[in-house]
Amino acid sequence: MSSVVQVVPGGSVTSPQGFLAGATYAGLKTYREDKLDLGLLYSEHPCTAAGTFTTNKIRSPSVDLSEKHLKRGNARAIVANSGIANACVGEQGMKDAQEAVDLAARYLKLPREEVLFCSTGLIGVELPMALLRASIGRVQLTRDGGNALARAIITTDTRVKEVAVSYQAGGRTATVGGIAKGSGMIHPQMATMLAFLSTDAPVELSFLRQSLQEVVDETFNMITVDGDMSTNDSVILLANGQAGGPLVRQGTAEAEGYLEALRVVCTHLAREIARDGEGASKLIEVTVRGARAEEEARCAARAIAASSLVKTAVHGSDPNWGRLMAALGASSVQVEENKVALYINGVCIVEEGRPIPFYRDAIVATMRGPDVRFQVDLNLGESSATAWGCDLSEGYVTFNSAYTT
Amino acid sequence: MSSVVQVVPGGSVTSPQGFLAGATYAGLKTYREDKLDLGLLYSEHPCTAAGTFTTNKIRSPSVDLSEKHLKRGNARAIVANSGIANACVGEQGMKDAQEAVDLAARYLKLPREEVLFCSTGLIGVELPMALLRASIGRVQLTRDGGNALARAIITTDTRVKEVAVSYQAGGRTATVGGIAKGSGMIHPQMATMLAFLSTDAPVELSFLRQSLQEVVDETFNMITVDGDMSTNDSVILLANGQAGGPLVRQGTAEAEGYLEALRVVCTHLAREIARDGEGASKLIEVTVRGARAEEEARCAARAIAASSLVKTAVHGSDPNWGRLMAALGASSVQVEENKVALYINGVCIVEEGRPIPFYRDAIVATMRGPDVRFQVDLNLGESSATAWGCDLSEGYVTFNSAYTT
Fold first, then answer.
1. How many domains does chain A have?
2. In sequence order, what are the beta bridge partners of A371?
């Protein structure tokens, strides 16, 4: 981690100044003992706000409504539920999304346009609005409510994902925090990635939007659990300026610390989502270097991290480099076989496209750890990228073969 | 199956007139009891010949050499080995491919340019040419040798894949036969699809090439086992004209029967490869209708058949339609949610994008059979396509997690 930023111990989305959060049990999520399933994130002060959303053409009206409200760039609250995705339910989906936003806006005394809505859970089931109406007033907003909200958005994740880092800018301390949920799917038809990010840095709207897209492309868009894209994926960033100081714009001195902090937070959350994929026991990190262009490096890294054969090899701690070569060659990027080098956990095993002798037992031993790192050098250019995934286990299949009934 | 063509009982790649085949054990494949691993397909008469090959940028020199020889359009023999893929071995790979072709050409008394070479097996291991030199002379070519050759090219397939159909054209009987192997991967680093096709129809070269590409696009290119593309995939078609009659060209009366026969043979072999995917217990057939263009229908059908979540749902006989909708939406095709209809084994479960009541136990019961059929109506146009895949089982993971050692 860069020395520019410092991790906030026990940090969460409420670590930046002026952010409150809370959650309650509304009755939407019945399959976990820890049953928080409805929550709010709220800034006490006006914000600039940006978001990135699923590109799935089948998507939840919750996503449509949040994207619409974010066009104004000044949202300052998120209402979120887990248990039901509010997707594939026809016109009722948008009506329910609007009512959920109205309920939260009334409770928080905000214009409805400043409230966003995120849902995750079952597809094809309508939201039980009576439960939301009855429960929203029970959400207690507190300065340390980030953890409760983080618990309320997870579904079959095995761990809560939250982090905050702070940095110095012009003698002031600013903080970026975040929470996320991954795509757990013990209970079928769930597969949503949600991340809520906050900062007290006074980030100018156009730079907020640009920086979020840039960092999401490098982090959340570089993780893959099973190649299936959700109807509800959303990443939202609110910036309320409570740290003070001049507006953070592109190219300013303040921009550097903010960008680094945002990158550290998103990288941490993205890696944790990958590591906690269904049935996963290991994090896979694939770095591709020497590509002709960054988009090619990203494409190659994602292709390798997403390969079922690579994922099963990692599950078995098997240094099966032929599968990496095949996945690399099958991707759409430029590859010259006789220039490719491969490393597993830092040990070179292929050079100029040909295997070089390596002590297999030693590689297998390093692959038994919780992190397996692949590095691929294409030796064709200067661009690089990193993708994260997880191993494919029998557990993944068992979880996802269960009946919906 | 169309009434135009008739299945040849016990048919294989040697069913068309004038084709001989045989196989022997050279010592390349040590992990099966049935150890044939080196074989030949041979036409007693000159042929027109066409092929389609993997688009993986990392590919075997065996593929490069076959593609080069097919440029002349008159190959009449294939030498094939299993156990070793002859891929990722540097310059030695092309030298070995050339020697394998020379060995076969000398044995068959053919110019080397009329011999093709196909390999499947371990990546990163050089062919033990001494074993090929010692063994090629033991291959006995016979009229019913297709089955032996089919056995020699499989790796971890659980079944041999072979078929032949005949049709009438101008009072004559012509036949199309074929054998194939799928991507079994108990022994790691193997994932090759090979298909050798033969016909005694006198097919003109340009039409042979065009028809093969067309039919491969509809059949072999529409199957998916795990989304990983091999370094060695090859489909080769030889036509020796021994059935007699006028040249089969595009638009002629003879073309219709030939095309139908080729389509039936390739569809059968492609389906059998999908059904016999590693660890698979079921064939998944996905038909997409009402797409704006055929390429969109193919893309959508493949995306659904390739989805890990769809595949695990089928493994559990789970009518989990939300996963189909998500996979459909995530594909690159045009989708309007409120126009989509979904059928499972002929029963409509989604109409206009919304679930309609269905008796779940009845659907689950039909999904317990060996074939699960999904039909998706996009209701946006007139194009349709079918893709084939298999369920994703714990067995797939277990097989593919094993060490290479």
1. 2
2. A283
- The list of chain A residues with pLDDT below 50 reads 1-2, 185-190, 403-405
Partner-chain contact A337 B189, CB within 8 Å: no
Say whether both A227 and A244 belong to one domain.
yes
Q: How many residues are there in chain A? A: 405
Provide the shortest C-alpha distance from residue A91 to chain B (in Å).
9
Active site residue B120: no
Position A405 in a domain = no
Residues B347, A397: Cα–Cα separation, whole Å? 26
Best-predicted range by mean pLDDT (A152-161, B126-135, B194-203, B317-326) = B126-135
Q: Identity (one letter) of the amino acid at B235?
A: V
Contacts of A124 in chain B (CB under 8 A): 321-322, 354-355
CB A322 to CB B360 under 8 A?
Answer: no
Q: Please name the residue of chain A whose CA is at the shortest distance from the CA of residue B315.
A: A401
Strand extents, DSSP E, B107-159:
115-122
Beta strands in B85-222 (DSSP E): 115-122, 161-169, 172-181, 194-199
Closest CA to B255 of B224, B297, B210, B222: B210
For residues A205 and A329, membership in a common domain is answered with no
Q: Please tell me the least confidently modeled range out of A70-84, B126-140, B318-332.
A: B318-332
What CA–CA distance (Å, rounded) separates A89 from A279?
29
Which residue of A191, A318, A320 is in closest CB contact with B326?
A191
A261 and A345, same domain (yes or no):
no
Known catalytic residues of A are 192
Asked whether residue B405 is domain-assigned, the answer is: no
Picking from B100, B133, B140, the residue whose alpha carbon sits closest to that of residue B27 is B133
**Can you list the alpha helix ranges (DSSP code H) found in A162-245?**
205-218
Q: Predicted confidence band at B253 (pLDDT cuts at 50, 70, 90)?
A: confident
- Between CA A186 and CA A243 the distance in angstroms is 41
C-alpha distances in Å from residue B72, one per residue of A201, B69, B96, B357: 68, 6, 21, 59
- Chain A residue with minimal CA distance to B314? A401
Compare all CA atoms of chain B with the CA of A122 and give the residue at the minimum distance.
B322
Candidate from B56, B318, B354 with C-beta closest to A329: B56
Give A228's DSSP letter. Answer: P
Q: Which residues, at least 6 apart from B12, have a Cβ–Cβ distance to it below 8 Å?
A: B21, B144, B146, B147, B150, B162, B163, B164, B177, B178, B179
CA gap B14, B39 in Å, rounded: 13
Residue A157 and residue A45 share a domain: yes
State phi, psi for B339 to the nearest 5 degrees.
-110, -5
Residue A228 shares a structural domain with residue A330: no
C-beta atoms surrounding B125 within 10 Å? 18
Domain end position, chosen among A237, A254, A275: A275
Q: How many CB atoms lie within 10 A of CB A93?
A: 24
